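With this grant's support, we have settled on a layout for protein records. One resulting record is reproduced below.
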Amino acid sequence: MMRSRLLILLSALLMLLGSGCSSGPARDVGLDKLSPRKAEQELSIGITNYEDGNYKAAAKSLQSALDSGLTFDSDAARAHKYLAFIHCLSNREKQCRDEFRKALEKDNQFDLVPAEAGHPIWGPIFRAVKAERKK
């Protein structure tokens, strides 16, 4: 008796689940929110381009990520960090400083990892910007 009730319940559940498959696109049930948004995709592309040494494309993607509205402030801070690195490498110290300031404004706990902090170009600039904020 118990087994037949379980089979009926299981059959009903499977029918309900099966009927949901024909209800339309994933966006109708909110599953599209599981895929990365454009801003997060641009951030990832920008970081990859940066790591590949394609700084012009990286800057474009990172700025697009910021313009598209990154969900998390920590992601915005990362985008600003990489933009700062690009400016520093291009001898644009003022823009480098500005991007580090923006990173710290987005995330006041933002910091460089030791390997980044020890970089001879942007390490000292970042420390100076961080020290300015403490005054």
User: Anything to note?
Assistant: Residues 2-20 form the longest helix (19 residues). The chain has a mean pLDDT of 82.
